[in-house]
Design a protein that fits this description.
It is a single chain. With about 150 residues, the chain is mainly alpha-helical. It has one domain. It contains seven helices and two strands, in the order αβααααααβ. Helix 2 runs parallel beside helix 6. The two termini are about 15 Å apart. The model has no long low-confidence stretch (mean pLDDT about 90). It comes from Blastopirellula marina. Pfam families: DUF1569 (PF07606). InterPro entries: DinB/YfiT-like, DUF1569. This is DUF1569 domain-containing protein.
Length: about 150
């Protein structure tokens, strides 16, 4: 699964919410949407200071991992930072709506973006593609109930 835009990810999340879904991974739709939002919002608001401790590795990560992420071949099984792990009791409908608002905010943002923790400073288009690829990576673990 790949999304060309974040809007496509929102459409997919809304379809999963409307139809119901089957999980093929660890997280519910609400947990995934929460995670996507919490990872995406710091592009505008800023990341915790300690995310820049390994900034010297960004050129290597950018050269080796970013092409895989953008091609839809994100590595599976990499543990996320604890601050980005969702709680268990999130409500799907609330988190899909919050994710949609986060996407709208990202798309309307006219200023600069904070450097990505792994890839460094990215232009708007590349950052959009990264967030869309990240959404596809997680949402691919859910299938509509009627499939």
């Amino acid at each position: 699964m790949q999304f060309a835009t974040l809007e496509e990810a929102v459409v997919d999340a809304r379809q999963l919410l409307a139809s119901g879904y089957v999980r093929h991974g660890n997280w519910t739709l609400g947990q995934i949407c929460w995670h996507l939002r919490i990872v995406q919002d710091p592009s505008i608001d800023g990341y915790p200071w300690y995310f820049s401790l390994f900034a010297f590795l960004r050129p290597i990560v950018r050269r080796t991992l970013m092409p895989r992420v953008l091609s839809g071949d994100s590595p599976k099984g990499i543990r996320t930072a604890p601050i980005f792990v969702p709680a268990n009791e999130l409500k799907d409908d609330e988190e899909v709506a919050a994710f949609e608002k986060s996407v709208e905010r990202f798309l309307k943002h006219g200023g600069s973006f904070y450097p990505h923790p792994g890839f460094g400073r990215l232009d708007r288009e590349t950052l959009h593609r990264i967030h869309a690829a990240h959404a596809a990576h997680h949402l691919r673990f859910l299938q509509t109930a009627d499939e």
